[in-house]
Amino acid sequence: MSGTGAIGLMALFLVDLLDMFFISLLGEVELAAAIGFAGTLIFFSTSVSIGTSIAMGALVSRALGANEAEKARQLTVNVMIFAVIICAILVSLMLWQLPQLLAMIGATGNVAAAATDYLVILLPSAPFIAISMSAGAALRGIGDARRSMIATLIGGGVNAVLDPLFIFGLSMGMEGAAIASVFARLA
């Protein structure tokens, strides 16, 4: 079960790696740097979702182990709601302070502007990651790690297809990478 969980988590971060790879093919160092700075802030918001998903898995499997299926269902709903609320609050604060956050980690000028453009599109989709990760943890909690992994791999596959299409095919560049990642998170 830990293998499927690890593969699913790697697929989640593969989306960000694919954005970096395809943006680097544009040959503009500033854009690649912007993705790097943006990735730091994205990782922070994703870490909150990872934390709530760990809680989800532990609570659900514990309730099921105690033969309390109804409690497991209630915990699943409650943790998902909590994860979405916490993530939405965090993202709202991050968007509100985005220029300051980027400056704190060293982004300036065109790099900061490009990172802002990317994050303004991508960060609002973070609650969907919270839902996805919590649902995946609930699936692992009931012993269905394979389906959890497949769902995450589908998101990575969607991004792998849409990134080059939006970035190069539709000439959307950085914004295309962000939009492709949003679709991957919704998949």
Automatic annotation (TrEMBL):
GO terms for cellular component: plasma membrane. GO terms for molecular function: antiporter activity; xenobiotic transmembrane transporter activity. InterPro entries: MATE_fam, MATE_MdtK. Keywords: Membrane, Transmembrane, Transmembrane helix, Transport. The chain crosses the membrane at residues 7-26, 32-65, 77-98, 118-139, 160-184. This is Multidrug and toxin extrusion (MATE) family efflux pump YdhE/NorM homolog. It comes from Photobacterium aphoticum.
